[in-house]
């Protein structure tokens, strides 16, 4: 009797593990739609916290609207819990920021209008900013399958971008060194 119960328990446990694994793979778009913005940037595989390292050649902003250390409120929904979140500026940089569309190198559906990739995160970036419609290769690793992907520039804007730490409104740990948000996506917390 004990052997039967143990066998049923083990079988149930293995079944639960298999079902959990199946629900996590091959369905990033479905997961994205419940957790992040709807295919306008498709942030399902977003690396929430980063190292804080910045690409070579990226220049600190001389007169950012939000200086390093300033407390801010995020007015963007790049990922779940971001819109309305309280945060702090970690870095401010002057560059060209792009929204891009690409198919992940890991497979899956095309990601449309991903915000944001900066000029210094493009492979062999030209001296001049790219224009909408230009094709580039991404060197950013904000999301799974992004690094090495061929992308099309959707929008391009010369501006200040910010790296931020913020506490998600949906709960959970503080997101550290999130790359990137623009001035238009922030307001002062004071």
From TrEMBL:
PROSITE patterns: PROKAR_LIPOPROTEIN
Annotated region (Disordered), positions in chain: 26-57
Signal peptide limits: 1-20
Ranges where the DUF1541 domain occurs: 68-119, 132-183
Domain of life: Bacteria
Alphabetized UniProt keyword annotations: Signal
Protein name according to UniProt: DUF1541 domain-containing protein
Organism: Mesobacillus subterraneus
């Amino acid at each position: 009797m004990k052997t039967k119960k143990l066998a049923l328990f083990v079988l149930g446990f293995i079944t639960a593990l298999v079902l959990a694994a199946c629900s996590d793979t091959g369905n990033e778009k479905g997961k994205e739609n419940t957790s992040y913005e709807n295919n306008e940037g498709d942030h399902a595989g977003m690396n929430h916290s980063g190292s804080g390292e910045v690409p070579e050649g990226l220049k600190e902003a001389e007169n950012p609207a939000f200086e390093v250390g300033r407390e801010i409120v995020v007015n963007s929904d790049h990922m779940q819990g971001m819109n309305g979140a309280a945060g702090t500026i970690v870095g401010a940089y002057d560059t060209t920021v792009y929204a891009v569309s690409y198919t992940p190198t890991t497979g899956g559906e095309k990601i449309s209008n991903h915000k944001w990739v900066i000029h210094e995160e493009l492979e062999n970036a030209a001296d001049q900013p790219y224009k909408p419609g230009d094709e580039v290769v991404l060197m950013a690793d904000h999301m799974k399958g992004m690094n090495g992907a061929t992308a099309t520039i959707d929008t391009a804007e010369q501006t200040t971008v910010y790296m931020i730490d913020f506490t998600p409104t949906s709960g959970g740990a503080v997101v550290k060194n999130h790359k990137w948000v623009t001035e238009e996506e922030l307001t002062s917390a004071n």
